[in-house]
Structures are given as C-alpha cells and as structure tokens.
Amino acid sequence: MTYLAVDAAIAKSTALTRSRLRNAANLTREKRQDREIPLLSLSVRHGLRYRGEGGLGRQAPSADSLANYWVVQPGDVIVNPMWLLEGSVGVSALWGAVSPAYRVYRPCSGTDGRFLAYLLGSSPYIQQYQLLIRGLTTFDRAIGREDLDDIPVALPELEEQRGVADFLDRQTTRIDHLMELRGHQVEQAKLARSAAMIETFFGSDHQQVRLSAVAAVSHGRQRSPEHESGPFMTPYIRSANVKDGLITTDDVKEMNFNPAERAQYGLRVGDVLVTEAAGSAEAIGASAIWRGEIDGPVCFQNHVLRLRPSTPLWANEYLYWWARASYAAGAMRVYATGANILNLGSESIKAMMVPARSPDEQSDCVQLCEARVGHLDDVATATAGHRQLLAERRAALITAAVTGQFDPTTSRGVA
Q1: Domain final position from 121, 138, 155
Q2: Sign of the alpha-carbon torsion through 113, 119, 121, 126
Q3: Spatial distance between the Cα atoms of 357 and 203, rounded to a whole number of angstroms
C-alpha cells in the first residue's frame, strides 16, 4: 500500500522520526460489557462529548450492543473511520465508552495523543483518506483497519509534540470562537432578510385576494419507469432543485416528455416554482423564479408547483416575492396538510391570500424587496466567506505545525 499524500507532506522535514500509526499508538479493544460506563460520541465540531450533549446521541443504542462498546480512557485518540474525510478524529479528555464502529488508539510512551489527533486530522491525511476509502455511501464507506494502522506518521520528540499541541490548542480555540461568531452573524443576516421580506410584503394594510384569483397553479408530471427513456428526453426541475430564492442545476435529471407534454409541463422565464413536498417540513414552500438557467425545453416534476399570473395586472416578480415572503413567515407550512408527511397541495396554495396592489405598487414592492434582501444577502455571503477563510487558515495552520514547517514556539499564531 502506498501513501502518496502523506509521504509527500512528511518528506518535507528530515527532523521528524518516521513510523507507522500502529507503532505510535495501540489499537485497544476493551469492551464495556455490563459495566456502568458513560457513553461518549465524537463529532467533528465538538470532539468527544458525553452522549446527549449538544444534540448528540439522540438514537439510543440497544442493550445488546452496549456490551460491545469500546472503553475510552483520557488521552486516547478516537477515530470514526466512516467520517474521516470530514476530519472525525479527536483526543478524549473523558472516561467513557464509544460505539464499536469507532476505533480507539492508546498513544505509546513517545506519543502525545493531542499531537497525534491533530496529525491524523490534518489536510494531507484527509487527502490520503480519499484514496483509501471503501464503500459508496456515508453508511458503508470506511477506511480499512489495516490501511489506517499502516499509515505513516512522523513525530518529533515528545516535548516538542506537547509544545505543538499546546500551540494548536490555543490557536484553534481562538479560530473556532471566531468561526462560531461568524456563523451566528450569518444566521442573524438570514433572520433579518426574512423579517425584511415579511415587513415589506405584509407590513401595510392592503386588500387580500386568493392566489387562485390572480395566478394559475399547476402540478408537474409524476416520475414513472415508462418515462425513463424515449426520443424526447428533457431535463426537469424537482423539489431538490428548488431552494429559497435559488434554482440549482448541478443535479438535474431527465424524463421523456413528448411535444404535447412539453407544452403542458414546460417552463417559461418568469414562472414561479414552489416545493409542494420535500424531505423536511422546513423546506416545504421554498420558492424560486425560473430565469432560463438551462437552455432548451425544461419541464417540472409533480412535487413542484408552478405559479403563473393569469392576468397582466399581476407581475411574475411580485408573485415570486410574495411566495418567498410567505415561506419566510411560515405561511406555506401552515397551509400544508398531512399526518406524517406534510404536503402543500395545489388547492391549499390556491387558498392562500395575496396583498392586492396596483401594477405600480407591485413594482415598488419588488424593488424594495430586491434592495433590502440584496443587501442582507451580500452581508451573509461576505460573512460566510470570512468564515470559510478562517476554516482554511485553521487547516493550514494545523498542517504546517504537525509537519514541521515552522516552529510554534517562535510563532505569534493567528492575527
């Protein structure tokens, strides 16, 4: 087995002692059995925590499986082989037990567990995991035990490992705090955006009319095996493609729509698309406007509703912003029906009320929405970009520190 990504990274420093993971830490397999040992869970964001903290461990394990949980001691390095691509590795400060799907490594006498965890979660190792992964989905993909045990590691002297780990603990804590702050700021901008749409659309007193009086509401066509091939294969928009204010085209499927069906189910620039049913209640009613993102004929599936003004007195853009404001206010979910799976049917959305404005008032409302929401979108985008830069800097800092590219004792860290 070759480890090109890792070898290329550790080859840059000749001061490190090279070995294999199996020589730096022992894979422990001590079972919990029937002992009363608290359960732990590993997450990329929070590391090792007691199950139940921060929303972890909502699905309780069966009594039979608890006996097979691995015992964890403070200082052990825990790896989730199914989520290593996301950097799911951490050192435990707790005594407890973890799922048998995890692997527990106990550092040898010359290895600092914190340093080893940073090393195994660094960018060159994540790149290497991409080459070692087996399986197709997040439920069956994993790094084989032998592949991971044999992965090269390069370690400085123990005291230097501890110095690097201390430095990274301080710096990553600082960066994580900034990232969390930026995340809160993004969420605040999104909340302000929703409030701006609701206030602009529904904050003044206007007569209300039913949507059915001003727009034609249509269902798309249902998928079926008979339409999977044919002479008129046509891309179609499904609920997964419709987000709040956005139509994604990176995963568009095709069905056979003959010319008559293209006329019935085809999209025109300006059509407003609303998700009728989605994977979660929060996604029901997400709305976007079709702006011809794909050239040529494009149709839509039955879980998407198409809104078209039935009279020139009503503007497409006005209905688009009405749909987004209604979604932001939670009105779409209120009108959805169903016991286990909510569904926003065409009859339900037709009964929803639309503020009746003149064409000039509609134009003013649209312009105000575009200005207010556009500004808040820019704020959210810029803040999210800053957060991403922090994440990239964090990863680069860890990689540089654990591969000997700089001396943390002489570095000022992150500005």
Answers
A1: 155
A2: negative
A3: 13
Helix ranges (H only) for 287-358 are: 316-329, 331-335, 346-350
Q: Is the pLDDT of residue 1 over 70?
A: no
Among the listed residues 142, 139, 140, the one whose alpha carbon sits nearest the alpha carbon of residue 85: 142
Max Cα separation, the chain?
Answer: 79
> Predicted confidence band at 46 (pLDDT cuts at 50, 70, 90)?
confident
Based on the domain organization, do 194 and 242 belong to the same domain? Answer: no
Full domain range(s) for residue 56: 4-155
Whether the pTM exceeds 0.70: the reply is yes
Question: What's the rounded Cα separation, in Å, for the pair 345 and 343?
Answer: 6
Q: How many domains does the chain have?
A: 3
DSSP secondary structure string, 189-210? Answer: HHHHHHHHHHHHHHSS---EEE
- Are 314 and 394 part of one and the same domain? no
- Domain presence at residue 256: yes
Mean pLDDT of the residues in the chain: 90
> Is the Cβ–Cβ distance between 196 and 372 less than 8 Å?
yes
The DSSP call for residue 289 is: E
DSSP 55-103: G---SPPPHHHHTTPEEE-TT-EEE-TTSGGGT-EEE--S-EEE-TTSE
